[in-house]
């Protein structure tokens, strides 16, 4: 597929914004997926190509959070395992499932997350000093992490919200550390889904690489913002992004 200068600039800009949004909250793919489809890509090809940017931005954010000492590694294995399994399952489903189920799934996720932040904010933003739990202590976290992996492997958009519900809600990480683990989980299960999409020859690499270049810059900036911003401000940014995600889901065709 030919990439015009206009399309290239659009991909760079939306990738930059998505890198910030995905690192701090979630839902950046609500920008990048339409940008890819504007170029004439079918939904399933855009969905697959989008993962190139997600992998690169997640790797950038993981390195940044690790450098600032915000990435906890003690329970990483048990956290990652169910998301990897879920990622393969979700990607396999995305390769064959009808695209018309994506919109209601995305909208339901966004609205549920917004409701949780309003009605029970402590579930997504534990108070400072709250004791972190291990996966082995909370069987429900396995369920949530597997669901997040399946959802992320299937559609990607909005998966950060599902991961935050598991990491902050079930395991009680504060929002900064939950965000750090979220991008690590996103990196791992997106790599898993990328393998499936490569095998199915669904990725257009040039648009994917251009998009990824924008996400790298956005993710780098967002890590610095996440370290400095207050937990309360981060929580409300998360809420605003859920509303934007809901609007994008309702307006999408």
TrEMBL record:
Organism: Shewanella algidipiscicola
Family that this chain belongs to: Belongs to the 4-toluene sulfonate uptake permease (TSUP) (TC 2.A.102) family.
Places the protein is found: Cell membrane
TM regions (residue ranges): 79-97, 104-123, 143-168, 180-198, 204-222, 234-252
Origin superkingdom: Bacteria
Keywords: Cell membrane, Membrane, Transmembrane, Transmembrane helix, Transport
Membrane topology: Multi-pass membrane protein
Protein name: Probable membrane transporter protein
InterPro entries attached to this UniProt entry: TM_pro_TauE-like, TSUP
